[in-house]
Design brief:
Length: 140
C-alpha cells in the first residue's frame, strides 16, 4: 500500500507525530501504530503476507512500515465506517522515489516499490529533493 503523509516535513517529524498520536490514544508501549482511513482494502490477505505501507513525504516515497492488520469500526458520532490500519512502529527508510499526489491510499505493487536503504547508504544522508532529482535524471 502507499499513502501520503500529509503535513509531514521529514522522517523525524513523522516519528514525533506518530509517537504523539499513540500517546493521545493511550496505546501501550508495544502496540502497533494505527493509521485511519475511510475505505478498507479488499486484498487484506495479500497485504498481510509480507506487505508494507509506503509513505510519501513531500512528493517522495521516503519510508515504509510493515503491515500488521486491519480493523473495521464505526464512528460513534456520525455512524460512518472507517478502517484502522495497523503497522509496526519502525520506519524503514527506502531509496527516494518521486510520486504524484493522490487521495487516500493506493495498492502498490512490489515490483514498483523502492528498495530499503542500508546503514551507511549515501542516499540516507542526502536531502530528499536532491536524491529524487538525481534519480529522475538517471544519475542514481
Amino acid at each position: 500500500m502507499i499513502k501520503l503523509a500529509v503535513g509531514v516535513d521529514d522522517l523525524d517529524h513523522m516519528k514525533r507525530l506518530q509517537a504523539a498520536r499513540r500517546k493521545q490514544r493511550g496505546q501501550g508501549p508495544r502496540s502497533p501504530h494505527w493509521v485511519y482511513t475511510r475505505n478498507t482494502p479488499r486484498r487484506t490477505e495479500e497485504l498481510l503476507a509480507g506487505g508494507s505501507l509506503y509513505w510519501v513525504v513531500r512528493g517522495v516515497i521516503r519510508c515504509r512500515q510493515e503491515l500488521v492488520g486491519f480493523e473495521e469500526d464505526v464512528n460513534a458520532e456520525d455512524g460512518r465506517k472507517y478502517c484502522r490500519i495497523q503497522v509496526k512502529r519502525t520506519l524503514i527508510k527506502t531509496a527516494p522515489q518521486t510520486c504524484k499526489a493522490f487521495q487516500g491510499w493506493r495498492y502498490f505493487e512490489a515490483d514498483r516499490a523502492p528498495p530499503d536503504l542500508s546503514k551507511g547508504d549515501t542516499l540516507a544522508d542526502m536531502p530528499p529533493e536532491m536524491a529524487a532529482e538525481l534519480k529522475r535524471l538517471g544519475l542514481l
